């Protein structure tokens, strides 16, 4: 994967600005082609095998679009969930959603399933989570938008290291890879990253492989 190497030390806010600008600069035709390539190369990967409950997200701000992948998985019988932000907490809940189903925007302007349409699921009940990100590295480091919602929601993976699920898979453009991210103690690492080039699995102390 190609990697961007900003000046050292890496500044998280500067990196966010740079990556977000580069994402937004991608033409619509390029975005669509990349999303289709991701779906084609990732949908049969072993990380997604036996997944029954999948959390996804809807793209914004030039993010890599996971919807073609999500649609493929939904047609295979995978149950899809979208994150729901609850007032007064950063811990997300997840509500079932079908492609084409009506949504409403939350206070951050992010589309969510309609309230009370289906019961809310706790993070621990999911099998695999597709997460948005601004940058990532080969150790599984993830830089988000700074709200801390995903780190707070899946903090139990850091406490309960015996847990093998849910697996966290970032969804990104390949150019969002950087040599090394400055990680905070509360940052929850990814199990893999899906891009238009395939899926990169993190393991063996930070050594990665792409399939």
Describe this structure in a few short sentences.
The protein has 5 helices and 13 strands.
Describe the structure.
It holds the Pfam family 5-FTHF_cyc-lig. With 211 residues, this protein is of the alpha/beta class. It has one domain: NagB/RpiA/CoA transferase-like (Rossmann fold), CATH 3.40.50.10420. Helices cover 22% and strands 23% of the residues. The strands form three sheets. Strands 6-3-2-1-7-10-11-12-13 form a nine-stranded mixed sheet. Strands 4-5 form a two-stranded antiparallel ribbon. A two-stranded antiparallel ribbon has the order 8-9. α2 packs parallel to α3.
Number of helices: 5
User: Helix proportion of residues, in percent?
Assistant: 10-25%
CATH class: Alpha Beta
Global mean pLDDT: 87
Q: Which secondary structure elements does this structure contain, and how are they paired or packed?
A:
Blueprint: H1 12-24, H2 28-42, E1 53-55, H3 67-75, E2 79-84, E3 93-96, E4 103-105, E5 111-113, E6 120-121, E7 128-131, E8 135-136, E9 142-143, H4 149-153, H5 156-159, E10 167-171, E11 192-195, E12 198-203, E13 207-210
Parallel strand pairs: 1-2, 1-7, 7-10, 10-11
Antiparallel strand pairs: 2-3, 3-6, 4-5, 8-9, 11-12, 12-13
Helix pairs in contact: 2-3
